[in-house]
Structure formats: C-alpha cells, structure tokens
Specification:
Elements lengths: L3 E10 L6 E11 L4 E5 L6 H9 L6 E4 L2 E4 L2 E2 L5 H11 E4 L3 H4 L6 H8 L9 H18 L5 H5 L8 H13 L5 E5 L7 H18 L2 E6 L2 H4 L5 E6 L2 E7 H6 L4 H8 L50 E4 L2 E4 L10
Parallel strand pairs: 3-9, 3-10, 7-8, 8-9
Antiparallel strand pairs: 1-2, 1-4, 1-5, 5-6, 10-11, 11-13, 12-13
Helix pairs in contact: 4-5, 4-7, 5-7
Length: 330
C-alpha cells in the first residue's frame, strides 16, 4: 500500500473572469521510506501541489482529485479539520525561504519549544518546561548544529540562511513526521551548504525511514539523492519513473530538454560550450495553451497536441505525450 496516493489532482485559482486551472490532473504516489523528487521550472505548479498536500492553500484555491489517499485513508471523505489533524500529525514541510518563515519576534529556542509534541512530555508543568528545552537542543544536534547555545538565544535575522534552514528542519522533525516535504530546501545557498542539507535529509531517510518529497528545479542535483522522480510542466504531469529511468532514458521531450541542459549529461562538450535549452518560456496562468501546454515550445509538437495526452505506463515508467521518445530506446 502506498503511503501517499494522489490521482488526477486539479487546483483552480478563483478569478473574477473565470477560474484558472493552475494544476491539471497531476498524479503522485509515494511509498514508505521513499525519496521522490518533484522537478520542473519555476511556475510549473510544484509548490502548489506540495501546499495542497499540506492543506495550507487559502480560499482562493479549489482542490479536486479522483483519489487523495494518505495511508489508505480517503482524505476527501473527511471534513477539513479532520484532514488537517491527520496531515499535521504525519506530514511536515520545509518552505523555500527559511528566514521569512521563522517568526522574527521570537528567539529560536521559543519557536523550537513550541513545536515539541505535548504527548512526548511527562510530569508536572515545571518538568515539561525542562523537557522541552532539552528536546529542542537534541533536535538542533540532530540537524548538525553543534553550538546550540548561540543558536537558541538568537533571532532568525542573526543567523545565516543555512542555519535557519537547519532550524526549519529541526522544527519539522519535532513532531516526528512520516513524510517530509522539502520545497527548494537549498534555494540561494552556496554549494557547500546545499550538499550539507541534502546529506542531512538523506541520513534522516536512512536512520528513521522517513519518506521525503524533494521539490526542486534542478534535475541533475536530484539524481544524486532520490529513488524516483516526477516531472511537471506548467501544472501538468509530464513523466515519472525511477531516477535512473528519468535521467538515462527520458521519454518526454521536456524531460529530455532538462537532461540536455545539465552539465552532467554534457561532459563530452568542449569547455565554454553552450548547453541545449528549449526556446521560449513557461506560459503564464492567464494565457495557458490548450491541450499539451508544452506544445508551443516542443520540437516534436504536431496538430494532435491540441488535445491533452493520456498517461501511458511502460513497465513503471509513466509518460504523458502523444509523440514520446520511447522508440529511441527500443
């Protein structure tokens, strides 16, 4: 049984001129202990999908799905409050901008202690206060912060972005989630700090069997840390499979373009050569193409592409394209 099983999820933005379909029938599934990458350009709907799973989208958004199961429970049959109670207990999320997500008026110690699950504490209230403090220090040690005294007595703006990201991870781990969603966890970080954060997430996955959904625009970086990858473009599902399948034998033209734009796949090129890229840019929500949204940029587009393609399963390698690249690897 899948830990998370979503089928044909759609997210609409309520607009005075008519609703805008920001995410169009995207499917996503995760197994226990799996590290899955969710990749696509900025504006592809990755963060929207992650926020829909967490249930933190505001009233401007309408979320529908054919199936939305969490550990076999159909969340769509539950009330909004019941759904939030289950997700808040089992799922945690790390957002893109850690400094902006932390409360600037509170020290790190207070914010960490607030996140500690009350069920983990025993005894009288004065004993619980000490337990909260000790638990917050242990969390900081788990995420690789050795000098905890300086950290817990600081405000977010007094810490580096990398340290704030580690604090965010510590807060996310406070309730011992089964699934951790990391939305661009290393955005705007130096490469050294990026690798430290990814190694930390990988160790949490191995030591605690925690499932992780890594959201990123960098396909090449995800290949180093994930078991499987789902690719999105402009709110539509494009391709999904194991990391090896996606990077070594991409079936969709968009995935192929992502691979071709990575240095790892172009080691044969001479120094200072330009990497291959798709012409144009991702469409804005107000002017979405009909059918396959990649059509205006796709090198293989034909008249048939004005109709949205169905997803085809090739032995666990899923692709949504009328003219896939599968025959190139046959």
């Amino acid at each position: 049984m899948n830990l998370l099983d979503i089928r044909n999820l759609s997210i609409e933005l309520i607009s005075p001129k008519g609703n805008i379909l920001a995410v169009d029938k995207v499917s996503l599934s995760m197994k226990e202990g799996e590290v899955r990458g969710l990749v696509g350009e900025s504006g592809s709907g990755k963060s929207l999908l992650a926020q829909a799973i967490m249930g933190v989208l505001n009233d401007k958004w309408i979320v529908n799905a054919d199936r939305f199961h969490w550990r076999g429970i159909d969340l769509l049959r539950l009330s909004l409050q019941e759904r939030k109670n289950i997700i808040a207990k089992d799922v945690a999320m790390i957002f893109q901008d850690p400094i902006a997500c932390l409360d600037p008026t509170k020290k790190i110690a207070e914010q960490l202690e607030e996140a500690i699950d009350e069920k983990l504490l025993t005894g009288f209230f004065w004993q619980k206060r000490k337990q909260r403090h000790e638990a917050s220090i242990k969390l900081l040690h788990k995420v690789g912060i050795k000098h905890h005294l300086k950290c817990i007595n600081s405000y977010p703006h007094e810490l580096t972005e990398a340290l704030c990201q580690r604090v965010m991870i510590a807060i996310a781990l406070a309730r011992r989630p089964i699934l951790l969603i990391a939305d661009e966890p290393t955005a705007a970080m130096e490469s050294t700090n990026q690798q430290q954060i990814f190694r930390l997430l990988a160790s949490l996955n191995k030591l605690r069997n925690m499932s992780i959904l890594l959201v990123s625009h960098d396909l090449e970086n995800l290949t180093n840390w994930t078991d499987s990858i789902t690719v999105m473009y402009s709110g539509q599902f494009v391709e999904a499979g194991t990391t090896k399948q996606i990077f070594d034998k991409p079936y969709h033209p968009y995935t192929q373009a992502l691979v071709d734009s990575s240095p790892k796949a172009n080691r044969h090129l001479p120094p200072k050569s330009r990497l291959t890229s798709l012409p144009g840019s991702i469409p804005i929500l107000n002017h979405l193409p009909i059918g396959c949204r990649l059509g205006p940029r796709c090198p293989r587009a034909q008249q048939k592409c004005v109709v949205a393609p169905k997803t085809v399963n090739h032995h666990g390698h899923y692709v949504s394209c009328h003219f896939s690249l599968k025959e190139l690897y046959s």
